[in-house]
Design a protein that fits this description.
Two copies of one chain form a homodimer. Chain A is mainly alpha-helical. In chain A, about 75% of the residues lie in helices and about 0% in strands. Chain A has eleven helices and two strands. The first copy, chain A, has a two-stranded antiparallel ribbon. The radius of gyration of chain A is 18 Å and the shape is globular. Chains A and B meet through helix 2, helix 3 and helix 4 of A and helix 2, helix 3 and helix 4 of B.
Chain lengths: ~210, ~210
């Protein structure tokens, strides 16, 4: 939808093939995710249903697809930081948070752990997008594997255009701290891998 | 994807709004189906998973999306009846068959009933498309609620273009008979509603 010609350093699907093919591949992969989650032995059937519901909710109108619709409607519009945050929580954050919680379901976590993991997922989800906005203006296309400066060219509101570069960097650091605090609040015995993932989301250069 | 301006007598979504909106509505409604199937109490959790797997399989690359890809690739190409049948079994038939089997799952049918319902669903799924191809050339747009003659104009292979109108009508009647035979083979006590549905699929005028 952003009509970018590059992803991960390779031509995007609609450029390599055509738009209908790209659409059908997207539809097919989305249903494949649900098919795998429903047909592979993952845990108890009730847990599998919970995982499917989390993914579906995060992908749909109240998650990724809804956030993308807000994004398209917001192009060329001034947005407040709250509106921008709402958009990104849906568009990118919901699916990242869901990926944390889908894993959590399998461990039957205590309410305190679930709540902490939920906050952790929300924080890294938003941090990912803030960092994305920063990298869009600070990195070259070769490093990103997608066209740099595209959001700015498209007149799209981003954390950098709304807050400025320095404030966007501070926001990323705050979200990183929120994620680490949330992990400690889970009282889970081993959260090292999740803590490293939060570092990676914020420190990444592409 | 067929760029038609009418569905059910109303402007299509991409005409009334725009293409990105139509895409996002499609993505959202597809995930909503899985969200509802996973989060509503329908039957035993194991049955719900089976229902989700049926829908996902019928919607994806081996079903509707794959059939649509074959359809796009086939425009302007000569197809044999076997190739045409394979395309339609995926594009339309798979989802109609799945809708029958999703209901069947809830009743824990015996193998004989399941097999008969599966053949019934397959027959009415293909019959629906054969009749669609016939109506496309015999009905006016006002009756259809979508643009008539569109497949012919787009140089798409259809049952009418491959077999001719009379043979296409005979094919629809054969599939109707196959569906009714399959229903009897289920040995289920009451298949009246399903038999009427098969009549309706073949007798419909829009």
């Amino acid at each position: 939808m952003d009509d970018d010609v590059l992803r991960r350093g390779r031509p995007t699907c609609h450029v390599e093939f055509d738009e209908p093919t790209a659409l059908l591949v997207g539809d097919s992969l989305q249903t494949l995710a649900f098919e795998l989650l429903a047909s592979q032995p993952i845990g108890e059937p009730k847990q599998q249903l919970e995982i499917i519901a989390l993914l579906a909710h995060a992908s749909g109108s109240r998650g990724m697809a809804g956030g993308q619709a807000i994004d398209l409607a917001a192009t060329g519009q001034p947005l407040s930081e709250t509106q921008l945050q709402d958009m990104h929580r849906r568009k990118t954050g919901a699916l990242l948070q869901a990926s944390v919680l889908m894993g959590a379901v399998c461990g039957n976590p205590a309410p305190q752990a679930w709540e902490g993991l939920s906050r952790y997922g929300s924080a890294i989800g938003l941090a990912f997008q803030v960092v994305d906005d920063i990298l869009d203006v600070t990195q070259a296309s070769e490093t990103l594997g997608k066209t740099a400066g595209k959001d700015l060219d498209a007149n799209k509101p981003t954390y950098v255009s709304v807050l400025g570069l320095d404030a966007a960097r501070r926001r990323a650091a705050e979200l990183h701290e929120l994620a680490q605090t949330a992990l400690r609040d889970t009282a889970l015995p081993d959260t090292v891998a999740l803590a490293m993932l939060a570092d990676r989301v914020v420190d990444r250069e592409s």
